[in-house]
Amino acid sequence: MSNTVLKIENVNKSFGGLLALNNINLDIERGTVHAIIGPNGAGKSTLLNVCIGLLKPDTGEVTFNGGEKIIGKKPHEINQIGLTRVFQTPEIFPDLTLLENVMLPALSKRDGSYKLSIFKMLSKETDIKNEAIESLKTISMDDRQDVIAGSLSRGDKRRLELAMCLVQKPELLLLDEPTAGMARHDTNQTIKLLKQIKEGGMTKIIIEHDMHVVFSVADKISVLARGKIIATGTPEEIRADPLVIEAYLGGAEL
User: Fold this and answer.
1) Considering the entire predicted model, what is its pTM?
2) Could you read off the pLDDT of 199-215 as tens digits, one per residue?
């Protein structure tokens, strides 16, 4: 099996004449946490949207697990092969309990349909229920499994969404600003959780503005500026790169 779980080759994407992604080439190595950083408007979320099928690039290709082509697949098809994304705004079911929120994507991953999964949820399938409880344990919320999700704080909603992704056992987890809008306490809790998941060996791509989060969890960092990757390296290499410091923080040290 290839050590590259996701390969992005010569990807370009324009919006009304504005080049949002400019010849992106990137290899995501299996078992690593790869952070993508850059100023607002650099193209970070656009790149993730291409990878999960929400956007089709003008040119280029994205391949998964050594050869399966992503471009042209629908988002649910990409999810089925092992890519799962956590969005900037928590995507939960506010009227369901925490347990039901986590059971639903587990059933959907197995059966391929949320509609069918809702019916199957009514049967309270023991195997899926147990998997959901284990995922809630991962985020230390199994003791709140009967709580209605809409009542959670923003930080807890983000962690619940993470459990909804983890229960699907993805090969690649894409996190778009997982600590956005969180208080420092919630951010630190999320860093702790991401480190715990990292120990399990799951491959992750993280888009994040908080450098404390990035340098705490990333094995490798790529820097986007004006739609181009200007640097890729270890956290130590990126922290010391003068081009990155200038482009990303206008000369301030990382």
Assistant:
1) 0.87
2) 888 999 999 888 899 99
